[in-house]
């Protein structure tokens, strides 16, 4: 792995595919036509990634947002989902914690200007001694994720009104 790091950047190779996801093609195409804004999360396997994932689902239920797919965006560049995300005026990204696993990838792919990044943990500030999602009861996980989603929607809304444009980069981190 060390030989893949050069000038502070880690390079990965992805095996290409000719396959397409039929429903992904339909959804990506429709979302692009309708000008929806993609929302993705880091999808980390711990409680922090799970809360980010649930929050992304909740944000994507509101207008003009819709759920993007990081897998297709990163590894199926000719898919309609990737095309929609690439052509979108911005992408909302919810990372689970300060490691910003997806933020550090996407800012090199689409640029910081079009990426609106959030660190979910910086908002709820809990569970740092836990890994397994089941260490937090389901009802509590959902409640925390909905609180994160409300914060993100409020921030997105306020920023657009205050700044008058939608490409301002916002990042929330904890030390
Ligand atoms: S940002 Fe945090 S929660 Fe998300 S994948 Fe990385 S380490 Fe896991």
Defining traits:
two-stranded antiparallel ribbon; binds iron/sulfur cluster; single chain; alpha/beta; disordered C terminus; 4-stranded parallel beta sheet; 7 helices; 175 residues
Please give a structural write-up.
With 175 residues, this protein is of the alpha/beta class. The chain has one domain (22-163). The protein is 43% helix and 13% strand. The protein contains seven helices and six strands. It has helices spanning 22-33, 47-59, 70-75, 80-87, 103-109, 121-124, 138-163; strands at 5-6, 9-10, 37-41, 65-67, 91-95, 115-119. Strands 4-3-5-6 form a four-stranded parallel beta sheet. A two-stranded antiparallel sheet has the order 1-2. Strand 1 (5-6) and strand 2 form a beta hairpin. The longest helix is centred in the last third of the chain and has 26 residues, at 138-163. It starts with a strand and ends in a 12-residue tail after the last helix. Mean pLDDT is 91; it is low at 160-175. The structure holds iron/sulfur cluster. Iron/sulfur cluster binds next to helix 2.
